[in-house]
Amino acid sequence: CYPLAIDYLKRGLVKVDKIVTHVFPLREYKKAMKIASKGQDSIKVTLAPGG
Length: 51
Fold this sequence. Notes:
The protein is of the alpha+beta class and 51 residues long. It has one domain.
């Protein structure tokens, strides 16, 4: 499963900008975890360590 997904990403067949729906600075990890755990209106919630 993962090799195929990685291949699709490398070839640009999957638009990653549509997958990451939320980006939070690390200091807002509690809010990020809350949104990720609910799953509504979120696909991929990301923490930005430098943010």
